[in-house]
Amino acid sequence: MSLALFRQRLTATPLGGRGMLAASLVCFWAFHFIVLWPSSFSQDGADQALNLGADLTWVIAVSCNALALLGCVVALSRGVTVHFERLARLSGLLTTCGIGLIALRAVWQGAPAGAAFLAGNVLFGVGTGLMMASYADRLRRVSPQTTFMALSAAFTVGAFLCLLFTLALVPLARWVAAALLPLLAAYFYGRYARQADDGKEETSNASAASSASSPDDFPLSGLPLKSLLGLIVVVGLTAGVMRGMSHLDSDVTSAGPLFVGSVLVGGSVLFALSFLIERLRPTLLLQGVVVVISAAFMALAFLAGESMSVAFVIHTIGFLFFVALVWLFCTFLGNGRSGGTRLFVIGLCANQMGQALGSLGYLGLVAAVGSSASALVPASLATVYVLLLAALIFFANAGRTRRAVPEVAPQAALQLPLLAEAYHLTAREVEIGVLVAEGKSRAAIAEALVVSQETVKSHTKHLYQKLSVHSRDELLRLLEEEARQAAEQQVFL
What we know:
This protein is mostly helical.
């Protein structure tokens, strides 16, 4: 295959033209894995103190991460102009300084070393939080499939880099490499941002945004945001609980290849699924994640800790799926909306808060009962109960919302033929638009009109472009506003 043909095929993929964004995400997750799991690959245990996750101060890092995201939410809610490219550079510097302070503990003993380690945790948490907020601003402009693919690729390649650096480099070189990766992540982010701002990707992003919100691809119209955020917090909490359990189990903490192997398997499966994401329902994937994580904790409860390694693998893969879905949902919610970045950051903040609460809760339970073995069963069962309860509340509210939408949709859909002349809509676009507004799926529309699904997708895309909307929700809001104005004119006359 020629190089030109390879580039052409690469450009045709959802990640085509966004290599800098993917490279930035790879660096971002790679230094996370290296910093959080270095002692897992240590032959002599000399750098055990550098393992951020084995210390209680890891909770401080995650809390600072959530606080940084919360600060961005507050700023965006108040209409403050945030320059995300500058924010990414700042986050790279803060994270690099944080990793440097953490690494000083290997050569510097005593009270000052503890203070430096604590300060490193704070800088690491704030820096990574700001970087995630920067990603939110860019990922909300691409299709959810692109986000899903980029994140799964970042998991896989990031885990491979973690394995390579920790096995091939001496501890000092490993930490130098880990400290440079945040700067590389910020650099690649800046390159991608400048490319997009120069207009090189505006066309592809616009087409991705219009096609990504197809009602058949992502049937999320009207999903209850509060219930979704609550579920995100709870699943983040399960990650914190599992993290606390694994840190108190020496067999799991010393099995670094188990972690990397889990990430490699999970990331590879996610990357394969990303090519099929348009044919999968994200809500169904979310149900699968809840089942997988529940199964991990039930294994722990019934086998009383003997299956810690198995549960750890199951939970790691399940949590990777959940993280990818959180970013997928956030991309969909933010796609084409003026407040999209804020919604994206809110979702990420909820996830990090859940992780901090889960870690604190489990460590508190261990302190109360006196040992990890005593806390294992009640913590596992309570976590499953809370997770299933949150899932039931979310899906129940989602079901009520979807049932309520069609009651309004038919009335609003009647306004679409009246807009045909003003917006230069074709007869076929009006016909398909009415069915879309009524909540029909792409497959149902294709069957009713005896056309292919690609034809339906093409007409829907053109309809959205002419009406300057990006999803069925926005289409309904436009039609409802038109209906309201028409009713007011009737009353006035």
